[in-house]
Every structure is written in C-alpha cells, then in structure tokens.
Amino acid sequence: MLNEEAVIFLVDDDELYLLRLKDHLQEKLSFKANIYTFTSGEECLSNLSLAPDIIVVDYYFNPEEGSASEHPLMNGIQLIKRLKDALPDIHLIMLSGETDVEIANTAIREGAKDYIIKYEYAPIQLQYLINNIVLHKMFRPKVNYWKWVAIGAGVLLILIILYEIAGKH
Amino acid sequence: MNDSPLDANVVAQFSSQQIQTYFTLYLKNASNLIDNMMKDLSSGNNEVLRQHAHKLKGSSMVVGAVELKNLAGQIEDSVRENKPLDSASIQQLRQQFQVLAEYLKKRYNLERG
Fold first, then answer.
1. By the CB < 8 Å criterion, does B66 face chain A?
2. Domain holding A116: CATH number?
3. What ipTM score was computed for the predicted complex, to two decimals?
4. CATH fold for the domain made of B15-108
C-alpha cells in the first residue's frame, strides 16, 4: 500500500448509507483511496480480485422485495467469516446499527478487528480509524527494511570473520 | 422557532448536489419501507418488519430526519421486545414522512419519486 492507493470496500444493503459514507471518506481521508460499494455479501465476495486492504461490513442485509423467503442473504457475521478465510490479513470492520453486545463479540471472535455502532458521527469515527490503519501499514515496510539491513550486516560480519580466520591459516 | 423536520447540523455537511441526491433517494426508499412495514404488520411478519424499521432508522439518521429516525427506532425496539404493535405507530410514521416530504418540496423543490 506504500506507493499505491488503498482499496476500501463498503458493504451495506442501504444504498443511501453507502453513498453518504463513500462521499464522506473520499472528502476526508488523508490519503488516496479507491472506494468500492456493494449492497450484499455475495457481491463483495465476487469482487475480491480487486485486492481490498480494508472492508467495512454491515450486519443486516435485507433481500430485495419478493425474494426474502427464497434467497436469504448471508448476514455480516457470516460474511466476515468467509472474508477471513479468503483473506487472512485483511482488516475487517463491522459498522452496524445493532447495539447487541453479543453480536459485537461474535463479530470480533469471527475476525472483525473493530466494531462501530452506526450513529450520526459514525462516518467521522470510521474516517479516523481508517486513517490510523493505513498510517500503521505505511510504516510497516520501514520496519521490514531495517530488519533486512540488520540481517545483511550480520551476514557481512560473519563473512569478514571467516575471511580473517582463513587468512591466518 | 425552528419548524424544520431536519437536523440542521447534519444538513449543513451536505453540498447542494448532495442534498438533491440524498433526499431524492431517501424519499423513494423511505416511502417504500413504510409501505412494506404496513404489509409486514398485516401479514404478521414481525422479523421482516423489524428489519425494515431498522433500515428506515439508519437512512433517516443519514439525512438528519430526527423524528422519523426516533419513530422507526421505537417500532424496531417494540418488535424486538415482543411488545404489541398496532397500525397507529406506522400511520404516525407515514404522517411524519408526509411532513418531511412537504418540507423538502418547499425548501429544495424536491418531489417524491
């Protein structure tokens, strides 16, 4: 993600909520992001080739009118489970109007790293959370860089010692 | 005296283009949801009724329709707690929606889709 745009998925059956959330994040995030919106878990799963860094998932997904009994949609917990299996390193956030603590606990147990309750200022809370996640990921390559520098220095030191030993014989 | 059915702090965050887009979508979706809730009540499909109320609560929150958000939330809670619910609650929701639709028509020249 260091030199690329972050890819963010927003998954919610409320078209209006998705639109508002996408507009807010595009205006306010402190980095460039490609934000994709999906109105069902099924649609989200069929687009994983877009390589998302962060996925924000609602809990309830109401099926379209007339299809409720024939094709029940997976809920947010089921989606999180499927996403965690498919992409173990993904950062999953549940954003739901559901205040039941048991649902929040289950979401975290199944792989969500954060749970945000939908209220008036949830888009701002999500904006700060995503900024922090991306900032953290941007610094991670630097840590890896210094790890490899240390390993390289160690190998070089061993080679110098071996050379010195060989030179004495 | 403020007679707006909308939370001014929420609407202040929207551009004029967003006001048109959000409220046009809201009027269409909320009207459908209220119709569906009435049907759910008639057919005794409480779980679907609760989900429709939950969705209306979320959409109303996005656009700052405070009274509609509160009414939808009360219906959602009543169904969850197995409290008796009659059509008056949903009629009250519909009346409040009509107040909002009239306000949007006057203030932003928005029509119901």
1. no
2. 3.40.50.2300
3. 0.88
4. Four Helix Bundle (Hemerythrin (Met), subunit A) (1.20.120)
